[in-house]
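Re: the request from the purification team.
They wanted to know what the chain is likely to look like in 3D before they choose a buffer screen. I agreed to run a prediction and write the result into the notebook, where they can find it.
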Amino acid sequence: MLGNIASQIMSALLISGNSVAVFSHGVFGLGSTSTAIYLIAVTGSLIWLGQRRSTFLTVADYLAIALFLCCVLSLALHPPVDSKDLALLILSFAAYPAARGLTTPLYGKAFMWVLAVIAGVGAVATMFALRTDLSALHGKAMVFDKYPHAPAQFTILVSLALMCISLAEVPLRRMATLAAPLVCIFAAAQVRFAFVALILALIVGFAARPAQRLRIMGIIGLVAISICVGVLSRGSTTLKFLRYAEISLVSPITQMGKESKSSQSSSSTQSSKSTETSETEIDGRQPLQDCSQVNLDNSIDIRKHIYSQAAALLPSAGLTGIGFNEFAKRSCVGAEVHNSILQMAVEFGLPAALLFVLLISSVFRSLWLRRENTDAVLALCVLTFAISMSLVYGRVSEDYLLFFALGSGAAVTSRLPSHEKTSMGNALRRLKFQSLGALAVTILSFMVINIVSMIVSARMFPAMHFWPSWPTIEAMIAAMAMTLFVPLFLAARFSFGYTVAFSLFSAVFGFVWLSFFSEFNYPHSITRWALVAGLLAALVPLLFVGADPIRPWTVRPALLRALLALVCVAVLIADVSYGIQFGDPYGDLRNTVTRPTMLNYLTSITIGALIPYLFASFAGRKEWGFAIGILALSVSFYPVVLNKTVLLIPLWLPLLFLLYSRFEPRIATILAFVIPLLIGMGAFLLLLPMSPNLALYPLGTVNLRLVGVPILALDQYADFFTHNPTTHFCQISIVRRFFGCMYGELGPTIGAVYRNGNFNASFLATEGIASVGLLLAPVSAFVCGSILSLGTIASRRLDARFIAVSSGLGVQLIMNVPLSTALLSNGLGVLFLLWWLTPAQEKAVKPTEANADQPPFSSGPQHLIAEHAHSGQMKVG
């Protein structure tokens, strides 16, 4: 009991840090050292009160760790000058683990009353400030003649107390007596957005708790009435700010200053100062925009200019940002970003901003799923309020409230049961963390092996424009920076999108390394940032979009397999009837036999989708005769298409089946790259002393084809479309038919210029660089990733091994042809349809036929789940 009360008091004192600093500085004359001591003591107390031994890491925790590592990397590359701000930043980040370790309810009566008392003292100080002449103070109440933002800090405390009251058993009459005067006072002090954030948080609570909606509506009404009373007490000032808001929201940025300036002559002096600043360099850097017309009395006007300047800096932010607190030096207003997410993107880099958004989204979603619990709803309301405030007032180094809300939300969700998870005991948790460690080591091993493979391939295939490389400082730093993507693969569950996402990562990682040695004449740095941003944009839907598909009807698996097998045989017979050829797949024999266009489409769909689907189905059911027959059928298509891919199908699909049978699915995904690369290099080293020409075959067939070509495609497409117009998607047949196109097929076009064959590429190069250019490539990548996430949704509830094997060729197609071609011509869209028609949770082997100790299609932690279920110790949903 005492520990619970102490945790609540310390939590309230931490959130009240800024308000307490106002009192310590204004009343007692203390400096920043006292504030630092206060924050360290309170944060340390919370960490000491936490129960870290019983805390298990969640997805939110991994995202938070990755976020902090990104920030540490940015700070290391851009050392901050001000140690005070750096200390505040560390304390702000420390609010997350301080709240995360607490296992008792945080938002109780003790928490509420501490906030109410501090807010009440702040209301008294604000009343004294309102009695002075505010005409020269932008209409704001200057608490202790120093702090115009103090009323907003006090309002935060009142808002949090009201949120606790809204879901607690406190009589509304008593609450109205206490809260209404405080709201009136702070509304009279022209506090605005804090009340907007409060109402948004209460609306979220209203949606989450149907049983208390009447009570919450009463609180919202009380707040609205109190605000009206407060603002009407200073009607002229309120009308002035309303006019400012109207001007700012209606007028464009280039006109706001002139109209605002005409509406308030007192801002002319401030504007002239801003003009002088905007005409000179700040810290050796030219300000981004001319802010001579910004009305410094109009906070909306200021924020619109600040946000536009921050947006202009985003392309140059890159992976590590421009540096902590650097935006204020470049801004013509001399102010911070006032938006924590935008500040994170500009000053710490785009990966940090993405992780920040994912962390917020993860905690918010987890709390919403547990909204039947009062603690979860309280944490959800506090998080909503903190997010809203952060979007307008946010400064990362002072955003204790947001990081505390994230930590407390993660703490609540970790100790409450979830409908999506089943408790598996300490043994399963240990197994899970061991699996994550093995996954991280496997990914890092792949990155090293990939670099070695590129170095070897560059020396053996110079005609492919594979540039000779060797570890340099720049290349090694870039490779280390790409490890920031690893936490995303650790946090995400296995899915079809996971396999595509890692394939894209392998290509972009290889390009980032190779671009430091490329001899093509294009902007290498801009291209690196564009592709890294495109990778981030594609990974979001690929890794984290998941939903159960609506299956209005399904097909009996046995009937579906029989029909697909008949279609495969019929297509092969139709192809053979037009003639066959035996010869070199690199020659011109494949063009000597002409077949109808529709038959060519059916052939590609059969090879790319139907055969892998059938093999995965038969092999999963241990029907080895049919599985071998399907592999033989795939080889029979070689005289038809003269494509070496069909010769590799009998090797590639069984390898995938073996890997996903023996390893956890995510680890198997990476091993599907690592093992072929090792085999290719091992065979090359063994054959090199005997026959250098023969040694090139395994290296070229495996290492160059699997990983090298997608990397080279990005390099060559970037060079070609830097010096030539983009296609605007005219490479797609239907677009070309209606609008024409200055190019033919992109593969032959690029191959003819660089003389290395028919060089098709992934959607990062085709729908991205070739179609819309470098700057818009991330947008195109996000759209393509979203389209491919339909495959993740269609395959939801299907077995991991079945998904991986049946899409074994589809993923390779995505990396080597345009997305439109993969979906329509090569059968990826048909595969999505087949997944959708496959019954959910269907196992390839019936439970009665499966081994009692190892259920079918299980690996890793699933073994332990099955054992617990078999012994009756737990229930499996």
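For the purification team: DSSP finds 40 helices and no strands in the chain.
Please add any questions underneath this entry.
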